[in-house]
Fold this protein.
Amino acid sequence: MNTSTTTSEQADGRMRDQHFRQDLKLRVQRRLMETLDLVQAQKLPVQELRDECLRRIDLLLNEQRTPLTTAEKQQLLREVMDEIFGLGPIEEMLRDPSISDILVNGPTQIYLEREGKLELSNARFRDEAHLMQVIHRIAARVGRRIDDASPMLDARLPDGSRVNAIIPPLALQGPAMSIRRFAGTPIDAKKLVELDSWSQDMNMFLEAAVRCRMNIVISGGTGTGKTTLLNVLSKWIPSTERVVTIEDAAELQLQRDHVVQLETRPANVEGKGEVNQRDLLRNTLRMRPDRIIIGEVRGAEALDMLQAMNTGHEGSMTTVHANSPRDALRRIENMVSMAGLKYPIHVIRDQMASTLDLLVHIARMTGGRRKIVSIAEVSGMEGEVILMQDLFRFKQEGIDSQGHAKGYFEACDIRPQMLERMREEGLSLPASVFQRRKFI
């Protein structure tokens, strides 16, 4: 027999099996939804709900005279429950802790990211209508909407994962969705050392900086781990202090108890009712915060942030998208200009220099691993230029056999200006922390 013919027949057989399973799942799902009170079902304990659905699936399969093995029946049960109560084909991915990103480029193309590398998944939505149904379900859960009048969505899932969706007419090739996953157990400082994301001395220094109320900006590109690092730093804020967070879509998992989380609200169908980050920040100042954490500054709220940091809310933190610490300063400068107050550039820079203490830059290296590549101190002004000095940095030396960046962290042999303040707070660090040397 011709080998190519055999291969073709096997492929056809797999395709028929796939179509049969899909058709069976749809029929069972349709009948289950007709006979199940979804409102009451969602109030049941998970195991009780599974048992009831399994009982009904058995009855439906017997009616259609479609015998399945126990494993096939359990798989069908998972898929049907995912369709009715979850997010369809991507629900299984949300149960996999090794997946950090789920990227949906239309109904037939779903990419996953594991350990910094993208791979194409075998999962599929039935069609665009199926994908839109899942997007609308996500929006409804957080009280938001997505339609022709408002074709973009920022939301979060119950596990804290961040969702962005965009639909036609803005998405020319059909609905697209991105889900940023967060670990079920928050990553801590020790884990970052184990992952070689920073050195133990960098850990010690940033802990001291947080405890003695330094204003910190975390910069980096998309997906570099800015939010994760912000969560780690928050653990060192003393428990006696009140923290208020401001975000577009709540995703911070601060490792502390006393925290108030605020979230922006988009405009309603009539274009009214919007509450942006700047509105929330102004209200936050009336809430007696000790520190303010803004998930990400991206507009005119940068001015209010600087003023808050400079008027009794020291130790505040935020993140910003940028390619380097210097770029982060330029971006903040541009965002302050968006406030419309027409401050001269030297006035804006002078306020930034007197307010910001540290810029921590994190990057995704070759091969996908994330590292803190620079911890820089803002040291003042010279003319109209904001001065910075690197305290720690990562030096890349090449690529290892697995395709990952290899190199080392090093101290830059610079004595930080903030050391005196650290000593005043009883947080003195040994001078050897800053002496020039490699951390292997």
Q: What stands out?
A: The mean pLDDT is 86. Residues 3-35 form the longest helix (33 residues). The chain is about 35% helix and 25% strand. Residues 201 and 430 are 10 Å apart (CA to CA).
